[in-house]
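Entry for the shared binder. Reason: the reviewer on the internal report wants the predicted structure included alongside the sequence.
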Amino acid sequence: MHSESNSLPPPSPMYRWLVLLFVSLAMFGNYYVYDSLWPVVDLMREQLGFSYQQIGWLSTAYNIAALCVLLIGGYIIDRWGTKKAITFFALVCLAAAALTAVSSRFEVILAGRFLLGIGAEPLIVAATTVLAKWFKGRELSFAFGINLSISRLGTASADWSPNFAGPLYATWQDPLWLATGVACVSVTAAWLYWVTEKRAEGRFQLATPSATEKLDIKSLYKFSASYWYIVALCVVFYATIFPFRSFAIDYFQQAHGVTREAAGLLSSMLPMAAIILTPLFGLWVDRVGRRSIFMLVGTVLMLPLFLAVSYLPPGPLVNLTVPFIGSEMVPLTLVVVIFFLGAAFSLIPAVMWPSVAYIVDGRRMGSAYAMMTMCQQLGWAVVPLVVGLLNDRNSAGPLNPAGYAPAMWLYTALVAVGVYFAFKLWQTENGPNGHGLDRTRMQSPAS
């Protein structure tokens, strides 16, 4: 049986690209459902009486759930196989989307967001495993890039939804039912992947994916200072960017007086920048090296942005256009700030995540990435609660836009901490204990 399996041909291009399409569409729905909540924040506050701190809890619940499944999600994928796992987790996301939309009670919506975290994070791991199985040795990096781009289009589409689904935004509930419909597309795509792989079994030789990342506590003390500086930078970076995105559409509306449609276009600049710039930055860094320098530059670039959006004059109105979606008049200052924030959002992850592979022994790679992901989720979970508390205590709103300033100072303080860790990383990498992150060509530590 073993020799017969090895004699099978590799998957045909048609099968591989079909699998990529279906898995990417499943991820598109996953990302859309997560981000569908943020354009209705103001409606939840007006129609349901939610506080900003309650909105923060709706973000935090997702992260708490993601932490709960971090250690068992991979086991389920290994145990069930990718066909069952990706379909199951897509169904969980569909149930979560429906639960979030079905009731006006805060506890029910909170449960929906928690359930989404249970399904969405393992779905991402399952999709990664599928691509490794189908594309290993054949355009794997390109397949990952396409998958991530389509996934982030889900985020951007949620931001654009006030433009293409404007009539739904008379209430908080209808846009979330739209997200439930998008989740149905995700489940359908997952099922089509199952059918495609089922037909391919016995006809093609598929790669055996690597073991799912596991957290080995015993190996943590062996990690270098550079690794921990990257982990710390990861925590403060994502604890700044993602909570800001969660409140961004509402913030642009309340503090700067732009329409929901304009706020959505502004917010979508972040994922669109990542789609376009992240692979370009990755190629650039591979050519020139200087990885620790780029992480430092990206973090320094972020430092003045949140205060700029708070205190600089808005400037003239300019036309912000997204082809096939819409165009809106927005203050120039907001466009410039979000443009530079999008550049940092693209540059830092493009350098940060691959750098771990160069400074951690291959035998401990799973533990390294699992610890990094766990710390990322912890930081991301805490900050939305603090931002919500600050907004509530300072009576932030259209009648008191200055009430949003303390949250912007919090983001700035987090970025300042990130600058410190990025500087320490650069200092270490240019000292006797460096791993050569700033060299053009590098080798991973021996495994």
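Summary line for the report: The domain at 1-212 is CATH 1.20.1250.20 (Growth Hormone; Chain: A;).
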